[in-house]
Design goal:
The complex is a heterodimer.
Chain A (H helix, E strand, L loop, with lengths): L4 H4 L3 H44 L4 H54 L5 H51 L6 H26 L2 H4 L2
Helix pairs in contact in A: 2-3, 2-5, 3-4, 4-5
Chain B lengths: L2 E8 L2 E7 L13 E6 L2 E5 L7 H9 L7 E5 L5 H4 L2 H7 L4 E5 L16 E4 L4 E5 L2 E7 L9 E5 L4 E3 L20 H15 L3 H12 L5 E3 L6 E2 L1 H12 L8
Parallel strand pairs in B: 4-5, 5-6, 6-7, 11-12
Antiparallel strand pairs in B: 1-2, 2-3, 3-4, 8-9, 9-10, 10-11, 12-13
The chains are: A mainly alpha, B alpha/beta.
């Protein structure tokens, strides 16, 4: 008689799901922090536009970049919304997988102890359902990773814009100091987001280690 | 694994008690589950918590095809009553669950869909099990605010949920009450604390006194039979309940 995999599943699967849940919860917390910072960028970009307008012709190059930074901040917010949606879907699915594991363990125990003929069929059906959930989680994991990569690339572009703005600030004549301050802050925040996303991309939730 | 004991049989009309699991951890309260069968159908009364599901399932399946269970009767909403619901539904997703209307949107947290639940009104409900007429009778506030018991007029058996329950000491694991006076000491504290209303208790005692009952089957402890049934009703009638011991 062939045993279903649900009968032979190692207990480490439950531990793995528990670890996955902890990891995804940590990623969620980190992304929440990044979303907060990304919102700050929007305000900073707006300030940069006002400052460039006040500086007039002396900061024309900065003005062009500050508009780009404003577009970037909006794109970043959209990217963060996508990330948030993916992370919520992942948290839900990891919870479902955890529930599946507990459910299956109880069913397995019942079937092993009982003589009911229907037991193995029910267990096999449960296993199919578990596989479906596991596959969905694997898909969501990939989507989340791809969304993180997209956000990372976007933030790298933001970093280039911020650095260019720092250079342009130097040509701002009497406005050079405040423009340098704004672009420096912008660069600092973008770097902060970049570092967070970089660390999230290395999370064991994606590598499985 | 739990053991099964047929406490009533007339052809394929049976009451089977599923009781006493020697492997059950002590931190879980012991529970009695009852299976009523008639024709090809089965009704499981207070199927128990998720943690005891393997023990209950394996015992039940030694007597009855679990996929032929047509319904579950949940006397009230507690986790030791029906937190195993989702697991039972794995075996028959079309299975129904009878429950007080008061809990019909709470118990779905244990599992099931909108189609699973049959909400029983406060005045009770007639339940048919493959032609066998069973009656859900009101036992509200004993102990839950939406609480029903199940009476089988033919078998003269009353499933009484937490009424009649006793927290028996280790080793005292007889299925039937053998010495009423000794047994009731283990029931007294439970009833004083868990039963919330003297008025509700009075009404219940009046109602069940008018029924023909050979066996009164609680969800915890031992079954009262014969003269011990009326003895219990009289004792309960005289007990002051809704009291915290301290």
């Amino acid at each position: 008689m062939t045993m279903t995999t649900a009968l032979t599943t190692r207990p480490s699967k439950a531990q793995q799901a528990g670890v996955d849940l902890l990891r995804i919860v940590r990623i969620n917390e980190e992304i929440k922090a990044v979303v907060g910072v990304a919102f700050k960028i929007n305000i900073m970009a707006l300030n940069a536009i006002f400052l460039a307008k006040r500086a007039g012709t002396a900061a024309r190059g900065f003005g062009v970049l500050s508009n780009e930074l404003r577009v970037f901040s909006q794109d970043l917010r959209d990217g963060m919304s996508v990330l948030t949606a993916h992370i919520h879907a992942c948290v839900t699915e990891v919870s479902v997988v955890l529930q599946d594991i507990r459910h299956t363990a109880l069913l397995r125990q019942a079937v092993e102890q009982s003589s009911a003929a229907c037991g193995r069929a029910v267990l096999a059906a449960r296993e199919v359902e578990n596989d479906r959930h596991a596959e969905r989680l694997a898909r969501l994991r990939k989507q989340l990773r791809a969304a993180l990569d997209d956000a990372f690339r976007m933030v790298e572009l933001g970093g280039v814009l911020a650095k260019s703005a720092k250079i342009e600030a130097a040509y701002g004549q009497s406005f050079a100091v405040p423009l340098a301050q704004v672009s420096g802050e912008f660069d600092g925040v973008v770097e902060e987001i970049r570092a967070s996303l970089e660390s999230l991309r290395r999370s064991a939730f994606f590598t499985g280690n | 694994m739990k053991t099964t004991k047929t406490i009533f049989q007339d052809g394929n009309h049976k009451w089977i008690a599923i009781v006493r699991d020697p492997d059950k951890p002590n931190y879980l309260i012991d529970t009695n589950e009852y299976l009523v069968t008639h024709g090809g159908q089965g009704l499981l009364l207070d199927p128990g918590g998720a943690e005891v599901f393997p023990a209950v399932f394996s015992a039940l399946s030694s007597e009855f095809d679990p996929s032929a269970l047509s319904a579950i009767f949940a006397s009230h909403q507690d986790p030791d009553i029906c937190s195993s619901l989702a697991l039972w539904l794995e075996f028959n997703p079309k299975m129904r669950c009878y429950v007080s209307w008061l809990w019909s949107s709470f118990i779905p947290h244990f599992g099931g869909t909108a189609e699973t639940f049959i909400a029983m009104p406060d005045e009770g409900l007639d339940i048919s099990l493959d032609g066998l007429h069973l009656q859900a009778i009101p036992a509200h506030y004993l102990h839950s605010s939406g609480n029903l018991h199940l009476y089988d007029k033919i078998a003269k058996v009353l499933f009484s949920g937490d009424v009649g329950a006793a927290l028996l000491p280790p080793g005292d694991d007889g299925l039937f009450v053998e010495n009423f006076d000794a047994h009731i000491r283990h029931a007294e504290g439970f009833h004083r604390r868990w039963m919330g209303s003297n008025e509700a208790k009075r009404r219940w005692c009046e109602r069940v006194s008018q029924m023909e009952i050979d066996m009164l089957c609680p969800q915890h402890g031992a079954i009262y039979q014969g003269a011990d049934v009326q003895r219990f009703i009289n004792w309960f009638d005289g007990l002051q309940v809704g009291i915290c011991g301290s």
